[in-house]
UniProtKB/TrEMBL annotation:
<feature type="domain" description="Rhodanese">
    <location>
        <begin position="122"/>
        <end position="216"/>
    </location>
</feature>
<protein>
    <recommendedName>
        <fullName>tRNA uridine(34) hydroxylase</fullName>
        <ecNumber>1.14.-.-</ecNumber>
    </recommendedName>
</protein>
<keyword id="KW-0819">tRNA processing</keyword>
<dbReference type="InterPro" id="IPR040503">
    <property type="entry name" value="TRHO_N"/>
</dbReference>
<dbReference type="GO" id="GO:0016705">
    <property type="term" value="F:oxidoreductase activity, acting on paired donors, with incorporation or reduction of molecular oxygen"/>
</dbReference>
<dbReference type="GO" id="GO:0006400">
    <property type="term" value="P:tRNA modification"/>
</dbReference>
<dbReference type="Pfam" id="PF17773">
    <property type="entry name" value="UPF0176_N"/>
</dbReference>
<dbReference type="InterPro" id="IPR020936">
    <property type="entry name" value="TrhO"/>
</dbReference>
<comment type="similarity">
    <text>Belongs to the TrhO family.</text>
</comment>
<dbReference type="Pfam" id="PF00581">
    <property type="entry name" value="Rhodanese"/>
</dbReference>
<comment type="function">
    <text>Catalyzes oxygen-dependent 5-hydroxyuridine (ho5U) modification at position 34 in tRNAs.</text>
</comment>
<keyword id="KW-0560">Oxidoreductase</keyword>
<dbReference type="InterPro" id="IPR036873">
    <property type="entry name" value="Rhodanese-like_dom_sf"/>
</dbReference>
<dbReference type="InterPro" id="IPR001763">
    <property type="entry name" value="Rhodanese-like_dom"/>
</dbReference>
Length: 247
């Protein structure tokens, strides 16, 4: 038996995220779904796993929440259940940047489809920045990407402000695992006055799913936050040893 894994997020205004928590927890449990979901006033984020029908039911439930009809979801397959339990947590942010006033629902950088990403990053006037932390980058990244060597996403604003002059006059292209961190990082750069900033639509997961390996600019594995550890092209499970090859 295999399990369907869904990595999902949506920036949406939740007036009372605490009121959503228990019904969502109970619905996931009733459908045999495990994993972690985060709720905040700015929306929902998480990765869950279960049967194909169970995941479909939970995704439909989340899409019915206020502002979540266009929920971003990336699906993959796991040979074994990649989570040991179910958690639905309340947070101040669904992805922690610690910069007040950032609102990806209002303004973000331009999206670039995976099919168009290679041409963009091959442009010498484009600066490619990996917004993930240093540990994740150690599993794999795009050829030529800058690694800010942050310990957490909350360190990214300070890194950017210390290095922004290096990228003056360049297009800034950013990417992350599933797209959510880039929503915030591009919104942050727009507020910092960067006019030409773009990000990979659907993140690395969408790229590995849609771009043939023979045409890929990706090297190594993509770290994921479950027991599969890392995945590769076609979203195939790679594990610890295979994926962690750039360190």
């Amino acid at each position: 038996m295999s399990f369907t894994v869904a990595a999902l997020y949506r920036f949406a205004p939740f007036d009372d995220p605490a009121a959503l928590r228990q019904p969502l927890l109970e619905f996931c449990a009733a459908n045999g779904v495990m994993g972690t979901l985060l709720l905040a006033r700015e929306g929902i984020n998480g990765t869950i796993a279960g049967s194909e029908t169970g995941i479909a039911a939970v995704v439909a439930h989340i899409r019915a929440l206020p502002g979540c009809a266009d929920l971003d979801v990336k699906y993959s397959i796991a040979a074994a259940m990649p989570f040991g339990r179910l958690k639905v947590r309340l947070k101040k942010e669904i992805v922690t940047m610690k910069v007040p006033g950032i609102d990806p629902a209002r303004e973000v950088g331009a999206y670039v489809d995976p099919a168009d990403w290679n041409a963009l990053v091959d442009d010498p006037d484009t600066v490619l920045i990996d917004t993930r932390n240093d540990f994740e980058v150690g599993y794999g990244s795009f050829d030529g990407a800058i690694n800010p060597r942050t310990r957490s996403f909350g360190d990214f604003p300070d890194w950017w402000r210390a290095n922004a002059d290096r990228f003056a006059g360049k297009r800034v292209a950013m990417f992350c695992t599933g797209g959510i961190r880039c929503e915030k990082s591009t919104a942050f750069l727009k507020r910092e006055g960067v006019a030409d900033v773009v990000h990979l639509k659907g993140g690395i997961l969408a790229y590995l799913e849609q771009v043939p390996e023979a045409e890929s600019r990706w090297q190594g594995g993509c770290f994921v936050f479950d027991e599969r550890v890392s995945i590769g092209h076609g979203l195939v499970e790679m594990g610890e040893k295979e994926g962690h090859e750039l360190r």
